[in-house]
Amino acid sequence: MRPLDETETTAVFEKLFKFTGNNLKNIVENPSLHKNKVYYVSESLVKRATNISRTQLVSIGTCIGRFTHGGSFHLTVQCLSSLASNAKHKVWLKPTSEMSFLYGNHVLKGGLGRITENIVPSDGVVVFPMSDVPLGSGIATTTKSEKDDQKTTTV
């Protein structure tokens, strides 16, 4: 396990900032990298783990994402609880569209129960059902319908 270099740190912080905004400082202080996976670990736990050799250490902390071979950063499901508590933009789904979202489909404006204000296209949002348990994350987009000439918000 090693600390992130500057380009890796920038990629991680840009992705997390998309979802949390200025609340980023509440989530990450000192991430570390292990086999292209980024872990969030407290400093006291890192100090205790120095007694274990690197070859014997499988993982430590919470995996918040990973780097692809192309160098882009993808968030994992394990970071969802941290994102949900510090999210800048949130979306709540109606019960009829929850399963559709969980199967990987887009959520149209009709499937939204509530939405935070001032969401701009390409903002990262955390998706909740009406019971306030985080389901996942997504990117807000806006499309214009040719038939209605109305904008539709999609997650």
Task: Give the secondary structure arrangement, pairings included.
Elements: E1 2-3, H1 6-20, H2 24-27, E2 31-34, E3 37-40, H3 43-49, E4 62-67, E5 73-75, H4 80-86, E6 90-93, H5 95-102, E7 112-115, E8 124-129, E9 136-139, E10 141-144, E11 151-154
Keywords:
155 residues, alpha+beta, Nuclear Transport Factor 2, Chain: A, Archaeosine Trna-guanine Transglycosylase, Chain: A, domain 4, 2 domains, five-stranded antiparallel sheet, four-stranded mixed sheet, 5 helices
Summary?
This protein is of the alpha+beta class and 155 residues long. The chain is built from five helices and eleven strands, in the order βααββαββαβαβββββ.
Question: How does this model look, in words?
Answer:
- The strands form three sheets. The chain has a five-stranded antiparallel beta sheet, covered by helices on one side.
- Helices cover 26% and strands 29% of the residues.
- The protein starts with a strand and ends with a strand.
- The chain has helices at 6-20, 24-27, 43-49, 80-86, 95-102, and strands at residues 2-3, 31-34, 37-40, 62-67, 73-75, 90-93, 112-115, 124-129, 136-139, 141-144, 151-154.
- It folds into two domains: 2-83, Nuclear Transport Factor 2, Chain: A (Roll), CATH 3.10.450; 89-154, Roll (Archaeosine Trna-guanine Transglycosylase, Chain: A, domain 4), CATH 2.30.130.
- The protein is elongated.
- It contains five helices and eleven strands; from the N terminus they run βααββαββαβαβββββ.
- The mean pLDDT is 82.
- It has 155 residues and is of the alpha+beta class.
- This is 60S ribosome subunit biogenesis protein NIP7 homolog.
- One of its GO terms (molecular function) is RNA binding.
- One of its GO terms (cellular component) is nucleolus.
- Residues 1-77 form the 60S ribosome subunit biogenesis protein NIP7 pre-PUA domain.
- Residues 90-145 form the UPF0113 domain.
